[in-house]
């Protein structure tokens, strides 16, 4: 028996039919596969992925990796060529860009899966390459499909705070993004004209009116997406589009609420960590609790002192800070995982603390250090522009009440348009310096 199977396998390979199973052309028989459907999914993905990529790169710039201690990707080299000074105006910019990055990425998941389904026969094409040009094309497909899978999988796990990676998420996601974008650029350069022609070959409104009984395979195409021996259809093309579109709408509905204040936040079932609330005026998201980061109520209690370091070094109690001029602003706080909220914060301006340290606020950057003992972002640096903004606070209260311990009591940073992790909680030291030193 084994001898006969080996003989048949060798004969099939010599005939160019490939190994048994998915490598054989007759294995894939869906009558819906073809250039038109593949191109519809592809063009939707192209627009969506460009937006996701741009907002992701903006998120990286918002981390100000050129400032001391902020760079999570020290080996990036030329990949940081586009970095710029992240602004504080408008205050809601990071909330919008990062919310778009995460919510749109989740919304595109059904479209991505549908696109992979539509081209899966090409991934099993045999032989692997008939020419150098085809080998290059298939290698770009491996990078494109693998890169998309890696970026979406690691991004979704990060949104859920499932840090199961055997590597650091931040550099891996950045490097993976550039590899994926390079493969996408090659793919678009080669396939975009063909995709536009394919989309124009059939009328979308007619396809949306076509019932299952009238569904027919597309004409044979030179790229082999249309099966040579199609099976009878079990779904119309409009059914496929409705199924994929409905999946995207569902993903949007289960995630968009995390970027909005109000009742819709309860619908953000794909962001469970975003619904871990405090009580009363502190009733908004807690990404990481004090206990999870090793901060105790005792060290944040009456004995706590804030070190303000600059031309001189002074120590301030919470009572000392409350005796200084206080300012109140409604400012959003937005997290890299996509959730955001706007609250009313009261505290001392960072600019006033810079003056207290003997440095002019228009020329002073600052590094804020936290009481937290574990995890990333125990400190973060802010630029001179961020320190100088009058809305940048060392917050002591939120919504008229003292901060809760999980929200950063006794004091936390709040800076307009900064990523949430740079709004350092449980601040123990503010080191002011002239930027560049």
SSE blueprint and pairings:
Blueprint: H1 2-14, H2 35-62, H3 93-107, H4 109-123, H5 132-159, H6 169-200, H7 204-209, H8 237-253, E1 306-309, E2 313-316, H9 318-322, E3 327-334, E4 340-349, H10 350-356, E5 364-370, E6 379-382, H11 384-388, E7 393-398, E8 401-402, E9 412-414, E10 427-434
Parallel strand pairs: 1-10
Antiparallel strand pairs: 1-2, 3-4, 4-7, 5-6, 5-10, 7-8, 7-9
Helix pairs in contact: 2-3, 2-4, 2-6, 3-8, 4-5, 4-8, 5-6
Region (Disordered): 210-233
Organism: Nonomuraea diastatica
InterPro entries: Mopterin_OxRdtase_euk (IPR008335), OxRdtase_Mopterin-bd_dom (IPR000572), OxRdtase_Mopterin-bd_sf (IPR036374)
What does this molecule look like?
- With 437 residues, this protein is α+β, with helices and mostly antiparallel strands.
- The chain has two domains: 246 residues, no CATH class; 155 residues, Oxidoreductase, molybdopterin-binding domain (Sulfite Oxidase, Chain A, domain 2, Alpha-Beta Complex).
- Helices cover 39% and strands 13% of the residues.
- It contains eleven helices and ten strands.
- The termini are far apart.
The strand count comes to: 10
Ranges where pLDDT stays below 50 over 5 or more residues in a row are 11-15
The radius of gyration computed from the alpha-carbon positions, rounded to a whole number of angstroms, is 27 Å
Strand order of the largest sheet: 2-1-10-5-6
Q: Biggest sheet: strands, sense, closure?
A: 5 strands, mixed
Gap between N and C termini: 76 Å
Helix/strand order, N-terminal first = HHHHHHHHEEHEEHEEHEEEE
* 3D shape: elongated
Compute the number of structural domains: 2
How many H/I helices? 11
Structural class comes to alpha+beta
The helix fraction, in percent, is: 25-40%
Which band does the percent of strand residues land in?
5-15%
Mean pLDDT: 90
């Amino acid at each position: 028996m084994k001898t006969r199977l080996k003989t048949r396998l060798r004969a099939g390979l010599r005939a160019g039919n490939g190994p048994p199973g998915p490598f054989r052309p007759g294995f894939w028989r869906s009558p819906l596969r073809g250039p038109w459907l593949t191109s519809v999914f592809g063009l939707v993905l192209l627009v969506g992925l460009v937006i996701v990529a741009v907002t992701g790169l903006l998120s990286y710039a918002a981390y100000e990796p050129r400032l001391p201690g902020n760079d999570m990707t020290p080996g990036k080299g030329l990949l940081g060529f586009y970095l710029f000074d992240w602004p504080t105006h408008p205050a809601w910019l990071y909330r919008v860009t990062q919310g778009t990055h995460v919510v749109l990425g989740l919304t595109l998941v059904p479209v991505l899966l549908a696109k992979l389904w539509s081209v899966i026969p090409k991934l099993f094409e045999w032989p692997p390459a008939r020419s150098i040009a085809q080998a290059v094309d298939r290698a770009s497909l491996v990078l494109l499909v693998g890169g998309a899978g890696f970026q979406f999988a690691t991004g979704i796990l990060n949104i859920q705070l499932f840090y199961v990676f055997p590597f650091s998420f931040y550099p891996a996601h950045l490097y993976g993004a550039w590899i994926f974008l390079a493969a996408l650029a090659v793919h678009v350069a080669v396939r975009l004209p063909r995709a536009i022609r394919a989309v124009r070959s059939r009328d979308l409104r007619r396809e949306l009116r076509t019932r299952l009984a009238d569904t027919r395979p597309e004409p044979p195409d030179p790229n082999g997406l249309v099966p040579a021996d199609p099976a009878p259809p079990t779904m119309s093309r409009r059914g496929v589009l409705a199924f994929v579109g409905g999946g995207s709408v569902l993903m949007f509905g289960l995630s968009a609420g995390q970027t909005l204040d109000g009742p819709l936040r309860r619908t953000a079932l794909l962001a469970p960590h975003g619904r871990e609330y405090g009580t009363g005026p502190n009733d908004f998201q807690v990404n990481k609790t004090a206990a999870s980061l090793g901060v105790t109520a005792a060290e944040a209690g009456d004995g706590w002192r804030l070190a303000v370091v600059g031309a001189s070094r002074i120590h301030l109690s919470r009572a000392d800070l409350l005796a200084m001029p206080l300012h109140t602003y409604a400012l959003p706080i937005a997290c890299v995982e996509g959730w955001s909220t706007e609250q009313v914060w009261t505290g001392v301006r960072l600019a006033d603390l810079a003056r207290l340290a003997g440095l002019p606020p228009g020329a002073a950057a600052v590094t804020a250090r936290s009481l937290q003992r574990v995890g990333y972002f125990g400190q973060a640096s802010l630029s001179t522009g961020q320190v100088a903004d009058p809305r940048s606070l060392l917050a002591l209260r939120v919504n008229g009440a003292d901060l809760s311990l999980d929200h950063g009591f006794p004091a936390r940073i709040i800076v307009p348009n900064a990523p949430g992790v740079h709004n350092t909680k449980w601040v123990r030291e503010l080191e002011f310096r002239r930027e560049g030193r």
